[in-house]
Specification:
- The structure is a single chain.
- With about 110 residues, the chain is an alpha+beta fold.
- It has a domain of about 50 residues: SH3 type barrels, CATH 2.30.30.
- It has a 5-stranded antiparallel β-sheet, covered by helices on one side.
- The radius of gyration is 29 Å and the shape is rod-shaped.
- The termini are far apart.
Length: about 110
C-alpha cells in the first residue's frame, strides 16, 4: 500500500454512525440525569431549607453564623441581623446565619 491509499483509509467514513451514535447519546442522557439527581436537586432543596430558616428567624433565637460565631438575635432589620455574643454586639447579614441552635421564644402551634 502506498501513502495515498493509507490516507484514504484514514479519512474514509466507517459507517453511518448507527448503533454507536445512539448508544453515545443514551450515555450522555444518563450522565446528565445522574448529575441532576445527585448534585443539582439536593443543592436546590438545601438552599430552599436555608431560605425558610432565615425567614423564620426571630428575636431571642440562638444562632451560629457561617464564620462560627454563636450569639443571640437582638434585632432584625430587613437584610441585617444584630446578634449579641458575650459582651459584644455584631451586625451581620441575614444570609450569614448558618443555623438556629436554640429557640428561646415559644413557636406558634399550628391550628
Amino acid at each position: 500500500m502506498t501513502t495515498a491509499h493509507l490516507s484514504l483509509l484514514l479519512i474514509a467514513p466507517t459507517g453511518s454512525g448507527g448503533p454507536g451514535a445512539s448508544a453515545f447519546i443514551i450515555q450522555i442522557g444518563l450522565f446528565i440525569a445522574i448529575f441532576y439527581f445527585l448534585l443539582i436537586r439536593p443543592q436546590r432543596r438545601q438552599a430552599e431549607q436555608h431560605k425558610q430558616l432565615l425567614a423564620s428567624l426571630q428575636r431571642g433565637d440562638q444562632v451560629v453564623t457561617s464564620s462560627g460565631i454563636v450569639g443571640e438575635v437582638v434585632h432584625i432589620k430587613d437584610d441585617q441581623v444584630t446578634i449579641r455574643s458575650g459582651e459584644a454586639k455584631f451586625v451581620i447579614l441575614r444570609s450569614g446565619i448558618s443555623s438556629i441552635t436554640n429557640r428561646t421564644a415559644v413557636e406558634a402551634k399550628p391550628a
